[in-house]
Amino acid sequence: MRQSIPRGHEVAYAALPWAQVAILAQWLLLPDEVAGVHIRGGPGWAEMQALRFPLTVSALPDDPAAAHLGRLNDFQPAHWPFRYVPAAPDAERHALLVFGQPLERALAGLLQSPLQLKARLVLVNGHDAGRPGAAALVQALVSRVSASGIVLLAEPLPPGELAERVREACLQMMQDRPLDLVVRAVFGHAALLAAGAGLLQHWRMRAQMAELSDRLVRQPRGASVKMSTQAMHQLGSADPVPVGGAPDALQTEAHELGKAIRRASVRHRYAGEAHEASAMTEAAQALRQEAAQAQAEQVAARHLQQQSWVKSRDGRLRQIRNAYVLGEPVLLKVRIGSQQASGWQSGSHAFPDRELPPNEDSHRLTVLFHEPGQLDAPLQQDITLPRTGESTQALFDFVPRREGAFLARIAVLHRNRVLQTAQLRAQVVPSRQAAGRRRIILETEAEVRHDWSSLDARRRFDLALVAGAPDADGTARATSVSGGKAWATDLTGVQQVAGEIGTLLSAVAHNTQGHGQGLDAEDNPQLLLDLAFCGRELYAQLVLDQLAQNREGALDVRSDQVGHIQLVQTRSDAVIPLEFVYDYELGTGSGASVCPQHREALAQGRCNPGCEGQRHPGRHVCPMGFWGLRKVIERHVQDAPAKADAGHPLVVLSEPTQAREKLQLQAGAVVGHSGRVAHGSVDGLLHELRTHLQGSVERVKDWDEWATAVQAHAPQWLVAFPHNTGSGSTRELELGNSTIRTRGIRFYPVGSVEGAAAQGPWHVRRPGGDPPLVLLLGCDTAGSTEPFSSHVSAFRQAGAAVVVSTIATVLGAHAVQVGTRIVADLLEQVAATGGQPHLGELLRQAKCRALLASQPMALCVVAFGDADWRL
After folding, report:
1. CA 346, 348, 350, 352: dihedral to nearest 10 degrees?
2. ω into residue 54 within 30 of 0, thus cis?
């Protein structure tokens, strides 16, 4: 029977249970002359799509095979077609996901992980086909990661041997061998391959080469790619030209390279991984680089748009532009499209779409719509935005229920990351006749993400909050979205708690004694307990009420699986102190001590399971209960209404892109301080910077010298310990007895700056310079304890990549101590890892280490800007 089954033939045994089908497949594989057998995947398996080169092999961080798989990266030349990438929040999508444990434990580990992993193919190290429920486990694992196929080994291999066989499988796949043959050859007849639609067809180098040539051909005229001479000739390019200054590089138009690959496909032999597979990887990387460069030069041309429709008396829909009527149902259409399209009202500023990455023809975005006075809860729908043209439409039905001002927020998100927010403003009138000459207005609030070149590679946020101007009834609210759900959170009372936090920390700032002997000594236990009670009040207002309203399927924000939070504020006059939310239990008394294991927890960034504080929470307070020490919180603050009123456009803030994701911190530093700070107190900081940095480290005496140093050296560290003076719009920062009004700092220009204007003064980033990391640590420089405009947004608008600041009064001595500790720890962590870790994680760890060194003021350090910058 086996000998009579030809290659490619399907044997249909749909009525058999999984165990019998698996046994049949293994039986068919027994003879040596049988090259490969696979089981057709079940319903709901993801359809195979194009692979991204280099192919990434991944595993969960605590998987027993993870360390061994890391050796895949040993001795790899440039443009190697596969590599190992550990699973992480910013690396959740992979070609092959390896589990070094048997099926049941693999699925358990995946379900416990906070990561939302996606993989084209899964490999599981151990599978008992006869185990009851095995088919359900396979289906659950495949569905969880949206896989197109799964390889199941009958007997587990040692982690080291498993990694070596994965390497061998990758090498054979680079030679264009069919996947079922590779599985049979590398893992033996006992390994099962279950494949969804198209997996075997598309998981071939020839198929991927054809996909690459199609993408190249679709590129616009003038788009070019630069590649090595060897890769260009291996692919078969026609008429490449040398690249100036690069003797071993050639350049050709993308669409011509695509056509040349098609012509040369018949002679591609895929003799080894260093041949066509590596050349294809280099071409794919060059194409992504070209797209990133094109985006930096292209002007966005699409806008967030709306149409409002109501039913006329004859039952037909008609568009309205003036006002909403009480009790009259409205159909709101929202899309992203050309401002030239008739009948659509566009937002006041272009949507930050640019050109989508070349490996993605479209993006799925989430549109959030909420008007707290008119809707019980926010509404959300997904839309698809293609590379060019209009998006699909999000349709929202609502019925106005209150007369008066209508003030709605529309937010657009990608993977829980806010890209842009807008306000939809109108009036609700008693009748259509009363609408008169009123207008419905769509106005852009904040633009958080401008460059999309690396959008799909960016980490997913577990929770996003958008807070702006008070509602029409004067109530401050935050609109939140997570896990496919959206809700509105009343912020009433949050500012009062923020004031109490500021008072507690200000008392520490004015008392230089009583806090230096450890968190469990002197005045620190009472401080932590008082802050924890404030944090519990924030937790009650921001979290518990929402959990009560959304019990079914609600995201448990208390869980450490919620590790990344984004907060977008369109007004900077009140900072929401998310870092001080405390979600551990507390007792009812006032005599709790600090958890005995707090030092171990701070050192490793998490509590040990079953520690004293968790077993007896009412007796202890633990610093790890504060969100700022356990979660990465990315803050963005923009005064959109203020800029609009002044006639200014929205400012494009510095952000990581595919072409520029790393802060060039070796390029030097500028350090300045208030006249109230002891001159010698910054010597330790200067020593740390001069030890680690290659560029010059300048100590300046006032703001004039500061601007001169920025203009001359373009430093990437800007460290200031200023003093706050004045109030409201007249607030100033004092440095060396000189003051500036930060609202007068020049915005970083989007276009070119010529002539005398280019000479400055530039206080943050000169034209053409790289975005710096700014530490602005002084007396209440982030402005959370009284209603005034913060200095932070001014520095961000002037070109800072990230501004690290404080949300409470910090006197000079404390500011320098905390700043020195954080700078030193950031530099040490980067040097120790040897890689490019994310700033968000590094800053969180630095705060933990500062607290370990008995510097409780580190709790009030926050960061504004993108947490995905790498150092």
Report:
1. -110
2. yes
The tens digit of pLDDT for each residue in 476-519 reads 888 888 777 788 888 888 888 988 888 888 777 767 677 888 89
How far is 835 from 871, CA to CA, in rounded Å? 8
- CB of 705 within 8 A of CB of 677? no
| Residue closest to 861 by CA, chosen among 530, 665, 575 | 575
Return the CA Rg of the chain: 29
Long-range contacts of 751-758 (CB under 8 A, 24+ apart): none
- Nearest residue to 458 via CA among 114, 88, 90, 86: 90
Q: 330 by DSSP, 3-state: which?
A: strand
Measure the CA–CA gap between 158 and 85, rounded to whole angstroms: 20
Residues 6 or more apart in contact with residue 78 via CB below 8 angstroms: 282
Cβ atoms 320, 286 nearer than 8 A: no
Give the strand pairing for 632-637 and 564-569.
Answer: parallel
What number is the average pLDDT over the span 173-188? 92
CA terminus-to-terminus distance, the chain: 61
In sequence order, what are the residues at sequence separation of 6 or more whose Cβ sits closer than 8 angstroms to the Cβ of residue 458? 90, 415, 417, 656, 868
Residues 6+ apart with CB under 8 A from 61: 86, 87, 88
Is the per-residue pLDDT at 87 higher than 70? yes
Whole-angstrom Cα distance, residue 365 to residue 412?
7
Structure tokens, 186: 């590398």
Tell me, what amino acid is at 496? Q
Distance (Å, rounded) from C-alpha 482 to C-alpha 418? 11
Element (H, E) at 614: helix 612-615
Report the b/e string of 668-699 with b at 16+ CB within 10 A.
Answer: bbbbbbbeebeeebbebbbebbeebbebebbb
The span from the CA of 50 to the CA of 201, in Å, is: 11
Q: Which helix (H) or strand (E) holds 411?
A: strand 404-414
For residue 574, give the 3-state DSSP assignment.
Answer: coil
Q: How long is the chain? A: 871
Q: State residue 648's pLDDT score.
A: 40
In what order do the strands lie in the sheet containing 773-776? 485-490, 477-482, 463-467, 564-569, 632-637, 861-865, 802-806, 773-776, 717-721, 669-673, 697-699
Query: Alpha helices, DSSP H only, in 203-249?
Result: 205-217, 229-235
Instruction: Say how many CA atoms lie within 13 Å of 191 toward its Cβ.
Output: 26
CA nearest 394: which of 451, 463, 337, 473?
A: 337
Chain segment 757-778, per-residue pLDDT in tens? 566 789 999 888 889 999 998 7
Instruction: Name residue 159's beta-bridge partners.
Output: none
Locate 175 and state its tokens.
Answer: 């030679």
Amino acid at 114: P
The tens digit of pLDDT for each residue in 442-485 reads 998 866 655 544 555 556 778 888 887 677 677 788 888 877 77
Q: How far apart are CA 423 and CA 701, in angstroms?
A: 44
Which run of H or of E encompasses 255? helix 254-264
CA-to-CA distance for 164 and 157, rounded, in angstroms? 10
Tokens of 843: 């800053």
Cβ atoms within 10 Å, residue 338? 14
- Evaluated on CA atoms 788, 793, 797, 799, the torsion sign reads positive
Q: Helices 278-297 and 205-217 meet at what angle, rounded to 10?
A: 30
Q: pLDDT tens-digit profile of 290-321?
A: 776 665 555 446 899 999 999 888 888 999 99
Burial class (CB within 10 angstroms; exposed 0-12, middle 13-18, buried 19+) of 817: buried
Report how far residue 142's alpha carbon sits from residue 150's, in angstroms, rounded to the nearest whole number.
7
Tens of pLDDT, residues 347-370: 888 887 653 454 567 888 999 999
Place of tokens 């005599």: 591
Are 328 and 318 in contact by the 8 Å Cβ rule? The answer is: no
Please say whether the beta carbons of 398 and 332 come within 8 A: yes
